[in-house]
Amino acid sequence: DAGVIQSPRHEVTEMGQEVTLRCKPISGHDYLFWYRQTMMRGLELLIYFNNNVPIDDSGMPEDRFSAKMPNASFSTLKIQPSEPRDSAVYFCASSQGQTQYFGPGTRLLVL
Amino acid sequence: KNEVEQSPQNLTAQEGEFITINCSYSVGISALHWLQQHPGGGIVSLFMLSSGKKKHGRLIATINIQEKHSSLHITASHPRDSAVYICAVRSSGGGADGLTFGKGTHLIIQP
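Output (structure tokens, whole complex):
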């Protein structure tokens, strides 16, 4: 298996623009997680899905953030409108059981 | 919410030294994870513990549930062990919930 796939790997955008991050989990995994990592706050859980259904989105910082999982092999995290404080590395992870497998991350810079 | 504390924050050691990284948490957990983040940013799951001790190669992880404490040990450390080591916990309550992370320990092993 190719592991968890994220795209794009890097994104630079201007404040106010819409940003869409994509994730393909490992086939057969029924949990998908979105995390954000910043220097100040470290890693934080944003939202997670079980069998494509959002279970806990309490970590989503604001209404500007939304996540979807239309099927078992694809999820998106959207920021609209983006702000400079959204600059971070966004990780997607998937699991089937206890161990989570992380994607390579998307490094987002909002100018 | 579980508070996860790691120590030390930074550690520099010489090749061959025995390394210990500590993690404590505030609320009962169902599992504790040790993750390794490489200088390039990728995150790898090293261990998942709910009790006792696990060993993989030169890495050993222990957990004391009563004292809410875990340690990660590296024997015969090598420069390639240089990375950020992150402790993460899943609070009690069942399900594959998302993780709460410590701030990480930056480890540098000098040749």
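The mean pLDDT of chain A is 94.
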